[in-house]
Amino acid sequence: MKRILIVNVNWLGDTIFVTPFIRAVREAFPDSYIAVLTHSRCKEVLEGDLRINEIILYGKEMFSLVSQLRSKKFDTAFVLRRSLTRTLLLCLSRIPERIGYDSKKSGFLLTKRIPALSKDIHRVEHFLGLARAVGIEPKTRNYEFFVSEKDRREAQRVLKEAGIRSDIEFVVINPGGNWDLKRWPPENFARLGDEISKKFNKKIVLSGAEKDTRLCRNISHLMKDEPVLLCGKIGLKTLAAVFEKAKWVISNDSGPMHIAAGVKTPVVALFGPTSFHITGPYGSGKSKVLQKEIDCEIPCYKLSCKDNRCMKAISVEDVLEAMS
């Protein structure tokens, strides 16, 4: 039996982008043992993926992890992020075949160096490039987020306690983002929520992490129709199950946006300083991206921007039209 280790990337969104790669490897080697080495913050994204036999977590002291990996006797390792530390870890773990993108710092430790692809391709295609380089052609490029029946029952309970019965249709607004310049203005989200309530007769649910609680409360206070606040109250799996039940998810460029797309819920994704060509919703789901052409460089990734014009250029009417 072939034993394969996939060395994962660091963040939630990127981990979702890795799921088509994992699926492609499993399809190419259906009888193999596949493990994923990842951070604890990414574990929840991978749980429930039946293509994975084992999830191994970082966090141990280096030589303890080396000892653990040696004991697994892996034949092949795919390194999804160019990293000297990670590639050295695989060498010390005596994994004979080490496949990854070439780099000046760590390429010499790989047994198969893959020339780097264009930085402008979507992250899904970036990861799938490693599969293609060893003769694995993916059958589909859709990424996934895995939800169990237990997660669905918990989502049903949370929604019922919030007053949303199974016959009530709702739209989720996810106003957060990992940096402020990726966020649409709170007053826009508030007006959008009221317009959706009035135009589509849908209840509004505000979602987000615990750090987004104040933001969600501010949006709620600006709204005429009181929304349901789920910020900081549920985990990723329950959130995904809530998204499954929603008619639409409206979100800035963020991990939850990809979770919604991963469970095939229609998404309106709001983009400003980042590139939807690289990190936008991907695959065959019903997603629409809004990004405005303005008289400055888009995307720019400039944390020093003072006016956030690219996000402000997206109007409430633009979002409503995208939902129609």
Walk me through the structure:
It is a single chain. With 324 residues, the protein is an alpha/beta fold. The protein folds into 2 domains: 131 residues, Rossmann fold, CATH 3.40.50.2000; 175 residues, 3-Layer(aba) Sandwich (Rossmann fold). It is built from 13 helices and 12 strands. It has a 6-stranded parallel β-sheet with strand order 3-2-1-4-5-6. It has a 6-stranded parallel β-sheet with strand order 9-8-7-10-11-12, with helices on both faces. Helix 4 links the parallel strand 4 and strand 5. Helix 7 packs across helix 8 and helix 7 packs parallel to helix 13. The protein is globular and about 60 Å long.
The portion of residues assigned to helices is 25-40%
Which stretches are poorly predicted, pLDDT < 50 over at least 5 residues?
Answer: none
Count of individual beta strands: 12
Q: What is the name of the CATH class of the largest domain?
A: Alpha Beta
CATH fold field value of the largest domain: Rossmann fold
Distance between the termini: 51 Å
Structural domains: how many: 2
CATH architecture of the largest domain: 3-Layer(aba) Sandwich
Give the overall form.
globular
Q: What is the makeup of the main sheet? A: 6 strands, parallel
- In which order are the strands of the major sheet placed? 3-2-1-4-5-6
Report the sheet-strand fraction.
15-25%
Number of helices: 13
Radius of gyration: 21 Å
